Amino acid sequence: MFSDLVVYATGTAEEAAASPTAALIANFLPFIVLIVFFWLIIIRPQKKRDKQVREMLAALKVGDDVTTIGGIVGKVAKIKDDQVTIETGADKTKLVFERRAIATVAPKKIEE
User: Fold this and answer.
1) 32 in helix, strand or coil?
2) Residue of 68, 69, 76, 70 whose CA lies nearest to 92
3) Relative to the CA of 17, which of 1, 11, 67, 92 has its CA 20 to 30 Å away?
């Protein structure tokens, strides 16, 4: 009677032989799903934003209106390697920043 319950609970011998593989897949499936989820929701969009920032900094040129990560707004006066000189304020004060300190570049206004 007890042996009938064991066979019923575990299934046939063929199912028992396939169960280690199925058990292994079942154990790792949540981790795989979690990794794919993080890649789609967090990592991939962040890489796209990083690429956009790199392209924006590479396209930086004299005369662009920029905002730094510290909130300083000004116009690019000079670019030398990784240093950017920005003119800000009414008296055209010049400040030198690293290129990576530029947060945004204002779009050019089309004058009619």
Assistant:
1) helix
2) 76
3) 1
Which residues lie closer than 8 Å to 96 by C-beta, 6 or more apart? 83, 84, 85, 86
The verdict on 65 and 43 lying in the same domain is no
Give the side-chain half-sphere CA count within 13 A for 26: 6
Q: What is the DSSP letter of 22?
A: H
Burial environment of residue 60 by CB neighbours within 10 A (0 to 12, 13 to 18, 19 or more): middle
Same domain, 99 and 71: yes
Q: Tokens standing for 96?
A: 């030198």
pLDDT tens-digit readout, 9-31: 555 555 555 578 888 888 889 99
The model carries a pTM of: 0.64
Mean pLDDT, range 66-85, rounded to an integer: 94
Q: Which two tokens stand for residue 76?
A: 């690019």
DSSP assignment of 61-109 equals: -TT-EEEETT--EEEEEEEETTEEEEEETTTTEEEEEEGGGEEEEPPPP
- 69 is a domain residue: yes
Give residue 12's identity as a one-letter amino acid code: T
